[in-house]
Specification:
Strands 1-2-4-3 form a four-stranded mixed beta sheet, with helices on one face. It has four helices and four strands. It is α+β, with helices and mostly antiparallel strands and 106 residues long. InterPro entries: NA-bd_OB-fold.
Length: 106
Amino acid sequence: MARYKLHLNVNDNSGETKLICFDNPAFFMVNLPASALLPAPFNESTAYTTIPDRIQKLIGQTFIFSVSVEQENIFEGLDTFKVNRVIADDLSITKTLHGKKIFAPK
């Protein structure tokens, strides 16, 4: 069974960071099962030579991410954060931004 593991470099007006996005949050962003992105027939040696169009279309889009700060981030300096939840629709993003529910790092 194919599963998602997306490595994301994200930025906003406060800076940039790296995220890792697994199954459910990634499915929410891509709106396709991971298996639908694999070439048929699947060949592991050539499967990752190109980034699928559906993934490339994420570039430039606006999302709000809820992330986990794990012990590895705090004590070991790991600079990649795990995505727990994604907000992608414009109305929810606008409400969240105007409701001041976002806390940007300083």
